[in-house]
UniProtKB/TrEMBL annotation:
Organism of origin: Mucilaginibacter celer
Protein name: Uncharacterized protein
């Protein structure tokens, strides 16, 4: 598949995930502050399930890649690049310090089900750092699509 087409698909997928991730982060931050969130419960549930599914797949691919770098056959180049960025982020403790990158991502996935107290803060930190990683990845898609300005 053509590089531009992969960049378009990656950009669209990333924007969708980013939109739902932002919606979820807003909900979690409001909940943490004891403020009633006005977003429909269905929207929050969709955001939560989308983020959870995406992180789960990404985590699985990162683990697979760590065991065998050639195991990502069949994964498109842009998604493979995100897998590599996630794996690199796990090794960059100066920038990525959250539970998502320092511990088992499955712990963060479990926190998504019923975050409370300290878990809520860890979850928000993890998702915020993940958003940063995703935004970095999307900026390379944007450069591929429209070039350097």
């Amino acid at each position: 598949m053509e590089t531009k087409q992969l960049a378009i698909q990656s950009f669209e997928r990333g924007q969708s995930i980013l939109e739902r991730l932002n919606k979820l982060l807003i909900h979690l931050k409001l909940t943490q502050k004891g403020i009633n969130d006005q977003q429909p419960a269905e929207d929050i549930q969709l955001a939560k399930s989308t983020v959870k599914a995406f992180l789960s797949k990404l985590s699985t691919l990162v683990s697979t890649n760590e065991q065998d770098a050639s195991a990502l056959t069949g994964v498109d180049g842009r998604y493979r690049n995100l897998v590599h960025k996630f794996a690199e982020a796990k090794n960059r403790s100066s920038r990525y310090r959250s539970a998502l990158f320092r511990k088992d991502p499955n712990l963060v996935l479990a926190m998504l089900d019923a975050p409370t107290g300290d878990d809520m803060a860890k979850l928000i930190e993890s998702l915020t750092e993940f958003r940063s990683l995703l935004e970095d990845h999307l900026s390379s898609d944007t450069r591929e699509l429209i070039g350097e300005l």
